[in-house]
Amino acid sequence: MLRYGPRLLAPLFLLLLAALFPQTTKAECDYISDYDAYDFSREHLKRDVLETYELDSLKYLRGILFGRHGRLFKDTEIDTYLKCRPWFKPNPNFSNSLLNQTERDNLDLIREMEAKKHDFIEPGDMRWYRDRLITEKMLGWHTGAEWRVLRAEVEAIYGKRFTDEPWLQKYFEERYWYAPDDKYDQSRLSEIERRNIETIAEAQKKQRNVSVSPGDMQIFQETLLTEELLRGLSLSELRLLRNEIFARRGRKFGAEWLQRYFEGQDWYEASKTGRETGLTEIEKKNAATIQRYENRLREELSTKPITDELIEGLFQEDARRLRNEIYARHGKVFKDKELQRYFSSFDWYKPDPNFNEQSLNKIEKENITQIFNYEQSAMRMQDAVEG
Length: 387
Known about the structure:
Helices cover about 50% and strands about 0% of the residues. By secondary structure, it is mostly helical. The protein folds into four domains: about 35-115, Methane Monooxygenase Hydroxylase, Chain G, domain 1 (Up-down Bundle); about 120-210, Methane Monooxygenase Hydroxylase, Chain G, domain 1 (Up-down Bundle); about 220-300, Methane Monooxygenase Hydroxylase, Chain G, domain 1; about 310-380, Up-down Bundle (Methane Monooxygenase Hydroxylase, Chain G, domain 1), CATH 1.20.58.1690. The longest helix is centred in the last third of the chain and has 19 residues, at about 280-300.
Protein backbone atom coordinates (compact mmCIF):
# COMPACT_ATOMS: atom_id res chain seq x y z
CA MET A 1 0.00 0.00 0.00
CA LEU A 2 1.34 3.47 -0.86
CA ARG A 3 2.18 5.72 2.09
CA TYR A 4 2.56 9.49 1.78
CA GLY A 5 4.88 11.32 4.13
CA PRO A 6 4.48 15.00 5.16
CA ARG A 7 7.03 16.16 2.54
CA LEU A 8 4.89 14.67 -0.27
CA LEU A 9 1.51 15.57 1.23
CA ALA A 10 2.32 19.27 1.43
CA PRO A 11 2.83 19.83 -2.32
CA LEU A 12 -0.16 17.59 -3.10
CA PHE A 13 -2.29 19.73 -0.80
CA LEU A 14 -1.06 22.91 -2.48
CA LEU A 15 -1.91 21.47 -5.89
CA LEU A 16 -5.41 20.64 -4.66
CA LEU A 17 -5.85 24.19 -3.34
CA ALA A 18 -4.67 25.60 -6.66
CA ALA A 19 -7.20 23.51 -8.54
CA LEU A 20 -10.06 24.46 -6.24
CA PHE A 21 -9.15 28.13 -5.91
CA PRO A 22 -7.36 29.26 -9.12
CA GLN A 23 -5.28 32.39 -8.78
CA THR A 24 -5.11 35.07 -11.42
CA THR A 25 -1.72 36.61 -12.15
CA LYS A 26 -1.22 40.35 -12.50
CA ALA A 27 -0.52 39.88 -16.21
CA GLU A 28 -3.85 38.08 -16.65
CA CYS A 29 -5.64 40.79 -14.69
CA ASP A 30 -4.15 43.41 -17.00
CA TYR A 31 -5.34 41.54 -20.11
CA ILE A 32 -7.09 44.08 -22.42
CA SER A 33 -7.34 46.36 -19.36
CA ASP A 34 -7.47 49.38 -21.68
CA TYR A 35 -11.22 48.66 -21.94
CA ASP A 36 -11.72 49.21 -18.20
CA ALA A 37 -12.52 52.84 -18.90
CA TYR A 38 -14.50 52.22 -22.09
CA ASP A 39 -18.14 53.32 -22.03
CA PHE A 40 -19.92 50.50 -23.87
CA SER A 41 -23.27 52.20 -23.28
CA ARG A 42 -22.31 55.25 -25.39
CA GLU A 43 -19.38 54.31 -27.61
CA HIS A 44 -19.46 51.81 -30.46
CA LEU A 45 -16.62 49.32 -30.78
CA LYS A 46 -14.60 49.43 -34.03
CA ARG A 47 -14.95 46.46 -36.36
CA ASP A 48 -11.45 46.81 -37.82
CA VAL A 49 -9.95 46.72 -34.32
CA LEU A 50 -11.91 43.68 -33.17
CA GLU A 51 -11.01 41.77 -36.33
CA THR A 52 -7.39 41.71 -35.07
CA TYR A 53 -8.34 40.19 -31.69
CA GLU A 54 -7.90 36.56 -30.71
CA LEU A 55 -10.83 34.55 -29.33
CA ASP A 56 -9.67 34.93 -25.71
CA SER A 57 -9.53 38.71 -26.04
CA LEU A 58 -13.05 38.78 -27.50
CA LYS A 59 -14.33 36.56 -24.69
CA TYR A 60 -12.88 38.81 -21.99
CA LEU A 61 -14.19 41.87 -23.80
CA ARG A 62 -17.68 40.36 -23.73
CA GLY A 63 -17.14 39.70 -20.03
CA ILE A 64 -16.16 43.32 -19.35
CA LEU A 65 -19.27 44.65 -21.09
CA PHE A 66 -21.58 42.41 -19.04
CA GLY A 67 -19.39 42.87 -15.96
CA ARG A 68 -20.13 46.58 -15.98
CA HIS A 69 -23.60 45.57 -14.85
CA GLY A 70 -22.28 43.02 -12.34
CA ARG A 71 -23.23 39.90 -14.26
CA LEU A 72 -21.90 36.68 -12.74
CA PHE A 73 -20.50 34.15 -15.23
CA LYS A 74 -20.48 30.36 -15.17
CA ASP A 75 -17.39 30.49 -17.39
CA THR A 76 -14.67 30.26 -14.73
CA GLU A 77 -12.11 32.17 -16.81
CA ILE A 78 -14.39 35.19 -17.29
CA ASP A 79 -15.57 34.95 -13.68
CA THR A 80 -11.99 34.93 -12.31
CA TYR A 81 -10.95 37.73 -14.67
CA LEU A 82 -13.84 40.00 -13.61
CA LYS A 83 -13.20 39.42 -9.92
CA CYS A 84 -9.76 40.97 -10.25
CA ARG A 85 -11.15 44.13 -11.91
CA PRO A 86 -11.17 46.90 -9.24
CA TRP A 87 -14.49 48.23 -10.57
CA PHE A 88 -16.40 44.93 -10.64
CA LYS A 89 -19.38 44.71 -8.28
CA PRO A 90 -21.31 41.41 -8.50
CA ASN A 91 -25.02 41.85 -9.11
CA PRO A 92 -26.98 38.63 -8.41
CA ASN A 93 -30.07 40.37 -9.81
CA PHE A 94 -28.50 41.07 -13.21
CA SER A 95 -30.92 41.02 -16.11
CA ASN A 96 -30.33 41.52 -19.82
CA SER A 97 -32.92 44.28 -19.62
CA LEU A 98 -30.18 46.45 -18.11
CA LEU A 99 -28.43 46.60 -21.50
CA ASN A 100 -29.18 49.55 -23.77
CA GLN A 101 -29.18 49.41 -27.58
CA THR A 102 -25.57 50.59 -27.93
CA GLU A 103 -24.41 47.83 -25.61
CA ARG A 104 -26.42 45.29 -27.57
CA ASP A 105 -24.88 46.55 -30.82
CA ASN A 106 -21.43 46.13 -29.27
CA LEU A 107 -22.27 42.60 -28.13
CA ASP A 108 -23.50 41.77 -31.62
CA LEU A 109 -20.16 42.86 -33.05
CA ILE A 110 -18.17 40.91 -30.46
CA ARG A 111 -20.24 37.78 -31.02
CA GLU A 112 -19.97 38.13 -34.79
CA MET A 113 -16.17 38.28 -34.51
CA GLU A 114 -16.18 35.24 -32.19
CA ALA A 115 -18.36 33.28 -34.63
CA LYS A 116 -15.98 34.09 -37.49
CA LYS A 117 -12.98 32.82 -35.52
CA HIS A 118 -14.52 29.52 -34.36
CA ASP A 119 -13.05 26.48 -36.11
CA PHE A 120 -16.56 25.03 -36.27
CA ILE A 121 -20.03 26.49 -35.81
CA GLU A 122 -20.93 26.65 -32.12
CA PRO A 123 -24.14 27.41 -30.20
CA GLY A 124 -24.71 31.14 -30.49
CA ASP A 125 -23.28 31.35 -34.01
CA MET A 126 -26.39 30.60 -36.06
CA ARG A 127 -27.48 34.25 -36.02
CA TRP A 128 -24.63 34.89 -38.44
CA TYR A 129 -25.82 32.21 -40.87
CA ARG A 130 -29.34 33.46 -41.50
CA ASP A 131 -28.59 34.04 -45.18
CA ARG A 132 -25.70 31.58 -45.61
CA LEU A 133 -26.00 27.86 -46.27
CA ILE A 134 -23.96 25.72 -43.92
CA THR A 135 -22.38 22.33 -44.61
CA GLU A 136 -21.86 19.32 -42.35
CA LYS A 137 -18.09 19.95 -42.40
CA MET A 138 -18.67 23.38 -40.86
CA LEU A 139 -20.48 21.86 -37.86
CA GLY A 140 -17.83 19.63 -36.29
CA TRP A 141 -18.62 17.47 -33.23
CA HIS A 142 -21.22 18.41 -30.60
CA THR A 143 -22.98 16.98 -27.56
CA GLY A 144 -26.67 16.09 -27.82
CA ALA A 145 -27.65 19.32 -26.05
CA GLU A 146 -25.47 21.43 -28.34
CA TRP A 147 -27.08 19.89 -31.43
CA ARG A 148 -30.50 20.72 -29.99
CA VAL A 149 -29.46 24.32 -29.30
CA LEU A 150 -28.07 24.77 -32.81
CA ARG A 151 -31.31 23.64 -34.44
CA ALA A 152 -33.50 25.57 -32.04
CA GLU A 153 -31.44 28.73 -32.43
CA VAL A 154 -32.58 29.15 -36.02
CA GLU A 155 -36.15 29.52 -34.74
CA ALA A 156 -35.27 31.27 -31.46
CA ILE A 157 -34.00 34.17 -33.56
CA TYR A 158 -37.65 34.77 -34.48
CA GLY A 159 -38.84 34.43 -30.88
CA LYS A 160 -40.06 30.82 -30.78
CA ARG A 161 -40.83 29.58 -27.27
CA PHE A 162 -39.75 26.10 -26.12
CA THR A 163 -42.28 25.49 -23.36
CA ASP A 164 -41.98 21.70 -23.59
CA GLU A 165 -38.23 21.90 -23.03
CA PRO A 166 -37.71 24.09 -19.92
CA TRP A 167 -33.90 23.84 -20.01
CA LEU A 168 -33.87 25.03 -23.63
CA GLN A 169 -36.25 27.91 -22.86
CA LYS A 170 -34.04 28.94 -19.93
CA TYR A 171 -30.96 28.78 -22.16
CA PHE A 172 -32.43 31.25 -24.65
CA GLU A 173 -33.86 33.52 -21.96
CA GLU A 174 -30.27 34.05 -20.82
CA ARG A 175 -29.24 35.29 -24.30
CA TYR A 176 -29.29 39.09 -24.57
CA TRP A 177 -30.70 38.92 -28.12
CA TYR A 178 -33.64 36.59 -27.43
CA ALA A 179 -37.12 38.15 -27.58
CA PRO A 180 -39.92 35.55 -27.11
CA ASP A 181 -42.82 36.04 -29.49
CA ASP A 182 -46.18 34.43 -28.72
CA LYS A 183 -47.14 34.97 -32.37
CA TYR A 184 -44.13 33.09 -33.71
CA ASP A 185 -44.86 31.56 -37.11
CA GLN A 186 -42.56 28.94 -38.63
CA SER A 187 -43.43 30.23 -42.11
CA ARG A 188 -41.16 33.22 -41.42
CA LEU A 189 -38.12 30.97 -41.85
CA SER A 190 -36.36 31.44 -45.17
CA GLU A 191 -35.51 28.54 -47.47
CA ILE A 192 -31.86 28.87 -46.41
CA GLU A 193 -32.79 28.64 -42.73
CA ARG A 194 -34.95 25.56 -43.33
CA ARG A 195 -32.14 23.86 -45.19
CA ASN A 196 -29.69 24.75 -42.40
CA ILE A 197 -31.97 23.06 -39.86
CA GLU A 198 -32.04 19.94 -42.06
CA THR A 199 -28.25 19.99 -42.38
CA ILE A 200 -27.81 20.21 -38.60
CA ALA A 201 -30.27 17.34 -38.05
CA GLU A 202 -28.51 15.18 -40.64
CA ALA A 203 -25.07 15.89 -39.16
CA GLN A 204 -26.32 15.00 -35.69
CA LYS A 205 -27.79 11.75 -36.99
CA LYS A 206 -24.48 10.75 -38.56
CA GLN A 207 -22.51 11.61 -35.42
CA ARG A 208 -24.85 9.51 -33.28
CA ASN A 209 -24.73 6.74 -35.87
CA VAL A 210 -28.52 6.37 -35.94
CA SER A 211 -30.39 5.30 -39.04
CA VAL A 212 -33.67 7.15 -38.52
CA SER A 213 -34.82 10.17 -36.54
CA PRO A 214 -38.12 11.96 -35.91
CA GLY A 215 -39.15 13.53 -39.21
CA ASP A 216 -38.09 10.52 -41.30
CA MET A 217 -41.27 8.45 -41.24
CA GLN A 218 -42.45 9.60 -44.64
CA ILE A 219 -39.68 7.42 -46.03
CA PHE A 220 -41.13 4.39 -44.23
CA GLN A 221 -44.76 4.70 -45.30
CA GLU A 222 -44.17 1.84 -47.74
CA THR A 223 -41.05 0.31 -46.18
CA LEU A 224 -40.85 -1.95 -43.12
CA LEU A 225 -38.82 -0.79 -40.12
CA THR A 226 -36.58 -3.19 -38.23
CA GLU A 227 -35.40 -2.94 -34.63
CA GLU A 228 -31.85 -2.65 -35.93
CA LEU A 229 -32.77 0.70 -37.52
CA LEU A 230 -34.09 1.94 -34.17
CA ARG A 231 -30.93 1.31 -32.15
CA GLY A 232 -29.40 4.41 -30.61
CA LEU A 233 -32.65 6.40 -30.37
CA SER A 234 -33.78 7.75 -27.01
CA LEU A 235 -37.14 6.80 -25.53
CA SER A 236 -38.49 10.28 -26.28
CA GLU A 237 -37.36 10.00 -29.90
CA LEU A 238 -38.95 6.57 -30.23
CA ARG A 239 -42.27 7.91 -29.00
CA LEU A 240 -42.12 10.83 -31.44
CA LEU A 241 -41.20 8.45 -34.26
CA ARG A 242 -44.10 6.12 -33.47
CA ASN A 243 -46.64 8.92 -33.22
CA GLU A 244 -45.31 10.55 -36.38
CA ILE A 245 -46.79 7.61 -38.29
CA PHE A 246 -50.25 8.65 -37.10
CA ALA A 247 -49.54 12.39 -37.32
CA ARG A 248 -48.71 12.07 -41.02
CA ARG A 249 -52.20 10.61 -41.46
CA GLY A 250 -53.91 13.48 -39.62
CA ARG A 251 -54.27 12.28 -36.03
CA LYS A 252 -54.91 14.94 -33.38
CA PHE A 253 -53.26 14.06 -30.07
CA GLY A 254 -54.68 14.28 -26.57
CA ALA A 255 -51.22 14.77 -25.06
CA GLU A 256 -50.72 18.55 -25.28
CA TRP A 257 -46.94 18.45 -25.69
CA LEU A 258 -47.24 15.93 -28.54
CA GLN A 259 -49.86 18.03 -30.32
CA ARG A 260 -47.72 21.16 -30.03
CA TYR A 261 -44.71 19.27 -31.36
CA PHE A 262 -46.50 18.11 -34.51
CA GLU A 263 -48.20 21.46 -35.05
CA GLY A 264 -44.68 22.84 -35.39
CA GLN A 265 -43.93 20.55 -38.34
CA ASP A 266 -44.44 21.91 -41.88
CA TRP A 267 -46.08 18.72 -43.09
CA TYR A 268 -48.63 18.31 -40.28
CA GLU A 269 -52.31 18.84 -40.96
CA ALA A 270 -54.93 17.45 -38.57
CA SER A 271 -57.89 15.72 -40.17
CA LYS A 272 -61.37 17.16 -39.64
CA THR A 273 -62.26 14.27 -37.33
CA GLY A 274 -58.93 14.33 -35.54
CA ARG A 275 -58.42 10.66 -36.39
CA GLU A 276 -55.79 9.24 -38.70
CA THR A 277 -56.99 8.10 -42.11
CA GLY A 278 -55.49 5.88 -44.79
CA LEU A 279 -53.04 4.05 -42.51
CA THR A 280 -51.37 1.27 -44.51
CA GLU A 281 -50.64 -2.22 -43.21
CA ILE A 282 -46.93 -1.43 -43.38
CA GLU A 283 -47.41 1.68 -41.24
CA LYS A 284 -49.38 -0.35 -38.68
CA LYS A 285 -46.56 -2.91 -38.53
CA ASN A 286 -43.96 -0.14 -38.20
CA ALA A 287 -45.86 1.43 -35.30
CA ALA A 288 -46.04 -2.00 -33.62
CA THR A 289 -42.30 -2.56 -34.15
CA ILE A 290 -41.43 0.77 -32.53
CA GLN A 291 -43.88 0.16 -29.65
CA ARG A 292 -42.43 -3.30 -29.00
CA TYR A 293 -38.86 -1.99 -28.99
CA GLU A 294 -39.87 0.99 -26.85
CA ASN A 295 -41.62 -1.21 -24.29
CA ARG A 296 -38.64 -3.50 -23.95
CA LEU A 297 -36.28 -0.60 -23.25
CA ARG A 298 -38.65 0.79 -20.65
CA GLU A 299 -39.11 -2.54 -18.91
CA GLU A 300 -35.35 -2.99 -18.76
CA LEU A 301 -35.06 0.15 -16.61
CA SER A 302 -36.08 -2.08 -13.71
CA THR A 303 -34.19 -5.23 -14.63
CA LYS A 304 -30.93 -4.24 -16.36
CA PRO A 305 -28.19 -1.72 -15.50
CA ILE A 306 -28.29 1.23 -17.89
CA THR A 307 -25.36 1.37 -20.29
CA ASP A 308 -23.52 4.54 -21.26
CA GLU A 309 -24.59 3.90 -24.85
CA LEU A 310 -28.28 4.04 -23.94
CA ILE A 311 -28.10 7.52 -22.42
CA GLU A 312 -25.20 8.99 -24.41
CA GLY A 313 -26.42 11.91 -26.49
CA LEU A 314 -29.70 12.36 -24.57
CA PHE A 315 -30.79 15.94 -24.03
CA GLN A 316 -30.89 16.95 -20.38
CA GLU A 317 -34.69 17.01 -20.36
CA ASP A 318 -34.86 13.54 -21.98
CA ALA A 319 -32.53 12.21 -19.27
CA ARG A 320 -34.68 13.81 -16.57
CA ARG A 321 -37.79 12.14 -17.95
CA LEU A 322 -35.99 8.81 -18.21
CA ARG A 323 -34.87 9.00 -14.57
CA ASN A 324 -38.35 9.91 -13.37
CA GLU A 325 -39.89 7.15 -15.47
CA ILE A 326 -38.40 4.65 -13.02
CA TYR A 327 -40.45 6.32 -10.27
CA ALA A 328 -43.49 6.66 -12.55
CA ARG A 329 -43.45 2.90 -13.20
CA HIS A 330 -44.20 2.54 -9.48
CA GLY A 331 -46.99 5.13 -9.62
CA LYS A 332 -45.25 8.14 -8.10
CA VAL A 333 -47.37 11.31 -8.30
CA PHE A 334 -45.19 14.26 -9.32
CA LYS A 335 -45.42 17.79 -7.93
CA ASP A 336 -43.86 19.01 -11.17
CA LYS A 337 -46.92 19.64 -13.39
CA GLU A 338 -44.99 19.11 -16.64
CA LEU A 339 -43.74 15.69 -15.48
CA GLN A 340 -47.18 14.69 -14.19
CA ARG A 341 -48.78 15.71 -17.50
CA TYR A 342 -46.12 13.82 -19.46
CA PHE A 343 -46.50 10.51 -17.60
CA SER A 344 -50.28 10.79 -17.45
CA SER A 345 -50.28 10.55 -21.24
CA PHE A 346 -49.05 6.92 -21.03
CA ASP A 347 -51.51 4.03 -20.74
CA TRP A 348 -49.19 2.18 -18.35
CA TYR A 349 -49.04 5.00 -15.79
CA LYS A 350 -51.15 4.26 -12.70
CA PRO A 351 -50.89 7.02 -10.05
CA ASP A 352 -50.28 5.71 -6.54
CA PRO A 353 -50.57 8.35 -3.79
CA ASN A 354 -48.97 5.83 -1.38
CA PHE A 355 -45.80 5.45 -3.47
CA ASN A 356 -42.69 4.88 -1.36
CA GLU A 357 -39.10 4.79 -2.59
CA GLN A 358 -38.60 1.59 -0.62
CA SER A 359 -40.46 -0.14 -3.46
CA LEU A 360 -37.50 0.49 -5.80
CA ASN A 361 -35.09 -2.39 -6.30
CA LYS A 362 -31.29 -2.14 -6.27
CA ILE A 363 -30.95 -1.94 -10.06
CA GLU A 364 -33.55 0.83 -10.25
CA LYS A 365 -31.75 2.86 -7.59
CA GLU A 366 -28.42 2.42 -9.38
CA ASN A 367 -30.00 3.43 -12.71
CA ILE A 368 -31.50 6.54 -11.11
CA THR A 369 -28.08 7.52 -9.78
CA GLN A 370 -26.38 6.93 -13.13
CA ILE A 371 -28.96 8.96 -15.06
CA PHE A 372 -28.78 11.77 -12.48
CA ASN A 373 -24.99 11.91 -12.85
CA TYR A 374 -25.45 12.12 -16.62
CA GLU A 375 -27.91 15.02 -16.14
CA GLN A 376 -25.32 16.91 -14.12
CA SER A 377 -22.74 16.54 -16.88
CA ALA A 378 -25.34 17.56 -19.48
CA MET A 379 -25.95 20.76 -17.50
CA ARG A 380 -22.50 21.94 -18.59
CA MET A 381 -24.26 22.92 -21.80
CA GLN A 382 -25.40 26.00 -19.87
CA ASP A 383 -21.72 27.03 -19.76
CA ALA A 384 -21.69 27.56 -23.54
CA VAL A 385 -20.92 31.07 -24.79
CA GLU A 386 -22.81 33.23 -22.30
CA GLY A 387 -24.81 36.22 -23.39
